[in-house]
Specification:
Chain B: This is Sugar ABC transporter ATP-binding protein. Chain B: Keywords: ATP-binding, Cell membrane, Membrane, Nucleotide-binding, Repeat, Sugar transport, Translocase, Transport. Chain B: InterPro entries: AAA+_ATPase (IPR003593), ABC_carbohydrate_import_ATPase (IPR050107), ABC_transporter-like_ATP-bd (IPR003439), ABC_transporter-like_CS (IPR017871), P-loop_NTPase (IPR027417). The structure holds three protein chains of three kinds. Chain A is about 70% helix and about 0% strand. In chain A, helix 4 packs across helix 12 and helix 6 packs antiparallel against helix 12. The radius of gyration of chain A is 21 Å and the shape is globular. Chain A is mainly alpha-helical. Chain B is built from 17 helices and 20 strands. By secondary structure, chain B is α/β, with parallel strands linked by helices. In chain B, helix 3 crosses helix 4, helix 3 packs parallel to helix 5 and helix 16 crosses helix 17. Chain C is mostly helical. Chain C has a two-stranded antiparallel ribbon with strand order 1-2. In chain C, a hairpin with a 6-residue loop joins strand 1 and strand 2. The chains are: A mainly alpha, B alpha/beta, C mainly alpha. At the A-C interface, helix 6, helix 7, helix 11, helix 13 and helix 15 of A face helix 6, helix 12, helix 14 and helix 15 of C.
Chain lengths: ~350, ~500, ~350
């Protein structure tokens, strides 16, 4: 019968008169605390094992420069997961964005190199625009046609990647505006600009998710899509906007690819798809939707980058890093499961079970 | 009624001994015992949340009791698995049917017993005759090769019944088996129950239709709040006394609304609304300040009408006017914009975000109304709305930040109600507003509805709870097979009339 | 729809798929007569062997309501390890011994997936994403990362064995011997899914897990077995791949999982579980292979292959989703909600 009658009234501390959801805050706090601990532990671990290499300023700079592109992609993945979906096409979108910028730059630069340099901001916008377009396709397939996100984005991932292969002929494109490259090398007060970009992006995403009606709707949609519909929330609009935003973030990641490395190809960051899902889940995102924290995701990005560079510092291979990624992912899920004892899946009377796979 | 085969002289086929079951600190069953004898029908009665369903799950091995034991034919099963239960001849017809939507009717009927027999191979051709036999015995018109997915609710229920009967069950538990069935089908089921009794099968019958229960059973066991209240001969009980045992007090089915229909201006006018396969030519008017009851069997179209007015299931023909303005209701957002709110039947999955706070749930429907110039959520505004409704509906919770999952059924229902009141609707429809709600809360919720109506809203209550309709509605519409069969008004509204008109 | 047409269409639209495949073959043959030849046919069959073996494994998981993206890692792990062991140990392993070893490794790795998923009730996608990384990392770190150019003799012998050779010279058409085990596997699996209680249990679990539990089906055990079986099939596929490629590359296969999943979904399997058939999967794999083989023949650069498969997947699934939506609108009651949840 109704489960509510059987669940104990939980002793909830008076967390406030604020309308913000306490449970989500407790969950958020928990995942953020966990991430802070993990970041510190990971950092301390490698700092002790090989302080000379790991604590060198080059290494620290490296962590700060390599994190942003992954962090932005992870934020995009987090948004898709927040609605209970997933976006497998993000890396393909990012590559298309980078390829667009590089191609535009080269094409204009052939005739007028100076003009090409000065048009850099426009090219960047074009890259993000390509991301939006990719998001539009995903959003259309998911919200209008009604394809499951995992399949829709699996298809678009292939399609976008295929387009990139056709476009580049499978080769690596060279050429990117100097201003982008120098942006990638500049630091303000020792903090690389790219890292600032990540922080600003994270702040914007956090405001959208927590402080705007659309963000709240995204959370509700993920928490219970049926109840969201019955509350008059337009799930089509919510899903469309979610995938648009995640597409734009994918485009932004493409810009970050280029600023770090002035080349673009169809196959860059093939391993990021897995990595980004690992980060999102590690950062406290519920893969079934409804819960996520921006801070957690940013900290998770840092943790994994620290582990990656730490592995290099103590001379472990990228293969061992792959093992660590997988092990961390499963360990986090198992620990969550054991600690929370998830409720049994809700049942629907007699009709087809439509649990979201994944 | 045939004479009971004096069960007490024989040996019980099923004994339930001192079952205790707790869920995270809350006791669902507290030392419940009962005996079941071959050839009898035992009715298990109790309000929602009294522990009936938990007891059924324990008897069928789906849940394990904290303590106590299940004894089948004198053999104790401390840790019974579902397969053991089926193996020892216990079959359950679940309220939610528990069928496989992706398999055919025939396969659904035979699969369970094949699993219990530990069979390794499956033969579609070999199992068909068994399924056909039971369908014929019941005189049903079921397409054995159809996917269960494509069946109507009634056919699904019949499939679930066939499944329980196909193996030589010795104990059959029926959890609300007649909710979707017509009079004829119910009669046939009861005739079959009679035949099963003659064969020595013992049945446990769970239903909230008390007169039906008393007609079919020999003994009645009543549970209240996880405890055994009474077991008595059905002959010594009547619906009123059973209800008294269930609730622990006398049920008041007198009317608490005015006998005279309200004279306010019409807020909702429905003209000739039709949807093929669901309902046909529905016309009615709802006045400001009126509480209108809509009733009928499950599958009669009563829910579909509400869902059409809420834009979930757009009607094909007909006009709907709200405050005199014709409105188009193709999506839920159309309905919300027109000022129509809907508290759905399935509160847990359609009404609530269980893991989110009371506050989040309350403003889920009015987020856009609480928006600042900067297109962010107006935090002060939402706080005021939430506080106001929290106090007005007297929701019992430590604070608005508590997750809805921690609330009782009655309080959770108030949260859904609050979500809609926050949108300031002109028309509020409630489907089964007090299902799964304890008695005290039930009356309070009905009182809230009357108060909200009096304050100028039109309220539609869809329910098959006749006393509830009598208590709170000015008028009652009876839907039968998709058509508006009767409109009851004033003195015409009584529990007996409603029941008679619904089932006719 | 009349009964005959409905039957032809099949429970999972196999008929529609067959028609599409047929039209494609006819279209390609008209566009380029060279396409319609025994050698093209045989080479498409040859190219389908490994994807089919993988796809059949994925089909099992998908019917049971999950998804597996670690099978390619399991395949490489099992096959590469086997090749390495067979090549380095003194004791002759023989073909059967080699396959036995690979199957055992595959089953063990699949067991890891199954145990974690069933024991902790975790989402299959996330777990297999994790184990994919672990399996590949362990292989490359602790087993070997070197390309092995020559297989042990016993396996190398199979590489060049053909079942049929028709014609000679340019027009020679060869049918590789490994189509036999692939077909046998398909037949066996179809029988298992349709005629054994284990097979029906997989459908039941994919249809409604809680109902399966109530019906006395041992859900956890079945899930573990499914993943172990998938591990074994992946291992067999990995062995076939290396035998047919006459080399063992530890970097192979991983990354191509999504193509296989796409073929299975195109074949009519529902990503929500409970629906799918061996016949549909076979057709799905063939369709993808025909497209990959024929684009070049009709003058489309091979670079378009990925896009073509992606678009095909979107169209295939999109049509199903739209059809589901339409039929949901017809069947009233709350079916629509289920669709929306699904979407």
């Amino acid at each position: 019968m109704s489960r509510t009658d059987q669940t104990p009234p939980q002793a909830v501390a008076d967390g406030g008169r604020a309308p913000g959801s306490l449970l989500s805050r407790v969950q958020a706090d928990r995942s953020v605390t966990r991430m802070v601990v993990l970041v510190v532990v990971a950092f301390a671990f490698f700092a002790v094992l090989n302080p000379r290499v790991f604590l060198s300023s080059i290494n620290l700079q490296n962590i700060a420069i390599s994190s942003p592109e992954i962090g932005v992609l992870a934020l995009a993945m987090m948004l898709a997961m927040l609605t209970g979906g997933i976006d497998l096409s993000l890396v393909s979108i990012a590559n298309l964005s980078a390829i667009t910028i590089s191609t535009l730059f080269t094409a204009v630069g052939e005739n007028d190199p100076a003009l090409a340099q000065s048009l850099a901001p426009l090219f960047v916008l074009a890259g993000i625009g390509v991301g939006l377009l990719g998001g539009l396709v995903n959003g259309f397939l998911v919200s209008r046609v009604g394809i499951t996100p995992i399949l829709a984005t699996l298809g678009t991932m292939q399609a976008f990647n295929g387009l990139a292969v056709v476009w580049t002929g499978g080769t690596v494109l060279y050429g990117s505006p100097d201003s982008l490259t120098s942006l990638g090398q500049t630091a303000i007060a020792g903090v690389p600009v790219l890292f600032v970009v990540l922080l600003v992006t994270a702040a914007v995403v956090a405001v959208v998710v927590n402080r705007t009606p659309i963000g709240r709707k995204v959370q509700l949609q993920g928490a219970n899509p049926v109840a969201a519909r019955y509350s008059g929330i337009d799930s089509r609009q919510v899903l469309m906007r979610t995938y648009l935003i995640s597409g734009a973030l994918g485009g932004l990641a493409g810009v970050l690819f280029l600023s770090r490395n002035p080349t673009a190809s169809a196959d860059y960051g093939a391993s990021y798809v897995l990595l980004v899902i690992v980060i999102a889940v590690l950062g406290g995102t519920n893969p079934n939707g409804g819960f996520a924290t921006v801070t957690g995701v940013v900290l998770a990005t840092l943790t994994l980058q620290i582990v990656a560079s730490g592995f290099t510092a103590i001379r472990l291979s990228s293969y061992q890093y792959a093992i660590a990624q997988g092990a961390i992912l499963i360990a986090v899920m198992v620990i969550d499961q054991v600690r929370w004892r998830r409720r049994p899946p809700r049942r629907r009377a007699g009709t087809s079970q439509a649990s979201t796979p994944a | 009624m045939t004479t009971p085969p004096s069960p007490r002289e024989s040996v019980p086929v099923l004994q339930v001994r001192d079952i205790v079951k707790t869920y995270g600190g809350v006791t669902a069953l507290n030392g419940v015992s009962l005996d079941l004898f071959p050839g009898e029908v035992l009715c298990l009665a109790g309000e929602n949340g009294c522990g009936k369903s938990t007891l059924i799950k324990i008897i069928s091995g789906v849940e394990k009791p904290d303590s106590g034991e299940i004894i089948v034919d004198g053999v104790a099963h401390p840790a019974m698995q579902p397969a053991d239960a089926i193996k020892s001849g216990i079959q359950v017809i679940y309220q939610d049917f528990s069928l496989f939507p992706n398999l055919t009717v025939a396969e659904n009927i035979v699969l369970t017993s094949a699993v219990a027999d530990r069979r390794r191979l499956y033969s579609p051709a070999g199992s068909r005759p068994a399924a056909q036999a039971i369908v014929d015995e019941l005189g049903l018109d079921l397409d054995l090769d159809a996917d269960v997915d494509s069946l109507s609710v009634a056919d699904k229920q019949l499939t679930a019944i066939c499944r329980a009967l196909v193996s030589d069950a010795r104990v059959i538990v029926m959890d609300e088996p007649t909710t979707a069935l017509t009079h004829t089908e119910v009669e046939r089921l009861f005739a079959l129950v009679q035949r099963l009794r003659d064969r020595g099968v013992a049945l446990v019958f769970v239903s909230h239709k008390l007169d039906e229960v008393l007609q079919v059973s020999q003994r009645v066991t009543v549970l209240r709040s996880g405890r055994h209240v009474i077991t008595a001969d059905a002959a010594t009980l009547d619906p009123r006394s059973v209800a008294r045992h269930m609730t622990g007090r006398d049920v008041d089915d007198s009317r608490s609304v005015g006998l005279v229909p309200v004279e306010g201006p019409p807020v909702l006018e429905v003209v000739d609304l039709s949807l093929t396969g669901a309902y046909e030519g529905i016309s009615f008017t709802l006045r400001r300040g009126e509480v209108l009851g809509v009733t009928g069997l499950l599958g009669s179209g009563r829910t579909e009408i509400a869902e059409s007015l809420f834009g979930v299931l757009p009607a094909e023909r007909g006009t709907v006017r709200v405050d005199g303005q014709e409105v188009r209701l193709h999506t839920i957002r159309d309905a919300v914009r027109a000022g129509i709110g809907y508290v759905p039947e399935d509160r847990l999955s359609q009404g609530l975000f269980m893991d989110r706070s009371i506050a989040d749930n309350m403003i889920a429907g009015s987020l856009d109304a609480h928006r600042t110039r900067w297109r962010t959520v107006d935090r002060a505004g939402t706080r005021t709305t939430i506080r106001g409704l929290f106090d007005r509906l007297r929701i019992k919770a430590p604070n608005v930040a508590a997750p809805v999952r921690s609330l009782s059924g009655g309080n959770a229902q108030r949260v859904v109600l609050a979500k809609w009141l926050a949108t300031k609707p002109k028309v509020l429809m409630l489907n089964g507003p007090t299902v799964g709600v304890d008695v005290g809360s039930k009356e309070e919720i009905l009182a809230i509805l009357r108060a909200e109506a009096a304050a100028g809203m039109g309220v539609i209550v869809i329910s098959d709870d006749a006393p509830e309709l009598v208590a709170s509605c000015h008028r009652v519409l009876v839907i039968r097979q998709g058509r508006l069969a009767h409109t009851l008004e004033g003195e015409g509204i009584s529990v007996d009339t409603i029941r008679e008109r619904v089932a006719a | 729809m009349s009964g005959g047409l409905a039957r032809f269409r099949g429970r999972n639209n196999e008929g529609v798929l067959a028609v599409v495949l047929l039209l494609l073959v006819v279209g390609m043959s008209v566009a380029n007569p060279a396409f319609f030849s025994l050698s093209t046919g045989f080479s498409i069959l040859r190219g389908s062997i490994v994807p089919l073996v993988f796809a059949l494994g994925v089909l099992l998981v998908i019917i049971s309501g999950g998804i597996d993206v670690s099978f390619a890692a399991i395949a490489v792990f099992a096959a590469y390890t086997t090749v390495k062991v067979a090549g380095s140990t003194a004791l002759p392993l023989g073909v059967l011994g080699a396959f036995g070893l690979a199957l055992v490794i595959g089953a063990l790795l699949g067991l890891v997936n199954g145990l974690v998923i069933a024991r902790f009730r975790l989402p299959t996608l996330i777990v297999t994403l994790g184990t994919q990384g672990i399996f590949k990392g362990v292989l490359l770190t602790y087993v070997g990362a070197r390309f092995i150019a020559d297989l042990p003799d016993s396996m190398a012998g199979l590489s060049t064995t053909n079942l049929l050779t028709i014609g000679s010279g340019q027009g020679r058409a060869q049918l590789h011997v490994l189509v036999l085990p692939a077909i046998a596997l398909a037949v066996l699996l179809a029988w298992m899914l349709r005629r054994t209680m284990f097979g029906r249990s997989i459908y039941a679990i994919g249809g409604d897990q809680e109902a399966a539990r109530r019906a006395g089906i041992r859900v956890m055990r079945t899930q573990v077995w499914v993943f172990a079986l998938v591990g074994m099939m992946a291992a067999a596929g990995g062995m076939f791949h290396m035998i047919m490629g006459r080399s063992a590359n530890p970097q192979d296969l991983v990354g191509g999982e999504l193509d296989i999943i796409a073929a299975v979904v195109l074949g009519g399997a529902s990503i929500f579980g409970g629906r799918g058939s061996v016949l549909g999967t076979v057709l799905g794999v063939l369709l993808v292979q025909v497209i990959n083989n024929s684009l070049i023949l009709v003058g489309v650069p091979s670079a378009w292959q990925r896009t073509a498969v992606g678009v095909l997947l979107i169209v295939g699934v999109g049509v199903q989703a739209l059809a589901a939506r339409r039929s949901a609108r017809k069947v009233h009651a709350n079916v629509i909600d289920q669709q929306e949840v699904a979407a």
